[in-house]
């Protein structure tokens, strides 16, 4: 009986060894996944920084564009007033 018991213990140990080997494979795979995750997180941080930088530049361009648009609108009204004054002046001169 003790031989049978030893055989069962050996089989159990062999199964346990196989499971430990499988666990080692899984742990190795998890370590690789973690490395990839860290690399992806680093790339995302880099992209976030670049997006924030570009967002700041876009905000600056928007301010300049608004200022330029306001100046253009003011110039347009000034030119309209000058044209209206010139037409009125010519009409007044031709009338009299």
Summed up:
This protein has 96 residues and is mainly α. It is 98% helix and 0% strand.
Tell me the strand percentage band. under 5%
Question: Whole-Å distance between the termini?
Answer: 138 Å
Structural class: mainly alpha
Compressed to H and E, one letter per element, the order equals: H
Rg over CA atoms, rounded to whole Å, is 41 Å
Count, helices: 1
> What is the helix content?
over 70%
Regions with little confidence, pLDDT below 50 for 5+ residues: none
Overall pLDDT metric: 92
From the spread of the alpha carbons, the general shape counts as: rod-shaped
The profile of the biggest β sheet is:
none
Structure summary, number of beta strands: 0
Q: What does it look like?
A:
The protein is mostly helical and 96 residues long. It is 98% helix and 0% strand. It has one helix and no strands. The chain is rod-shaped and about 135 Å long. 0% of the residues are buried.
Strand and helix map with partners:
Layout: H1 2-95
List keywords for this structure.
mainly alpha, single chain
């Amino acid at each position: 009986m003790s031989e049978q018991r030893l055989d069962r213990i050996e089989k159990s140990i062999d199964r346990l060894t196989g499971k430990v080997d499988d666990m080692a494979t899984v742990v190795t795979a998890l370590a690789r996944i973690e490395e990839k995750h860290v690399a992806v997180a680093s790339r995302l941080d880099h992209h976030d920084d670049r997006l924030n930088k570009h967002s700041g530049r876009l905000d600056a361009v928007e301010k300049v564009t608004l200022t330029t648009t306001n100046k253009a609108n003011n110039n347009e009204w000034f030119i309209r007033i000058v044209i209206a004054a010139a037409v009125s002046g010519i009409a007044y001169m031709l009338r009299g």
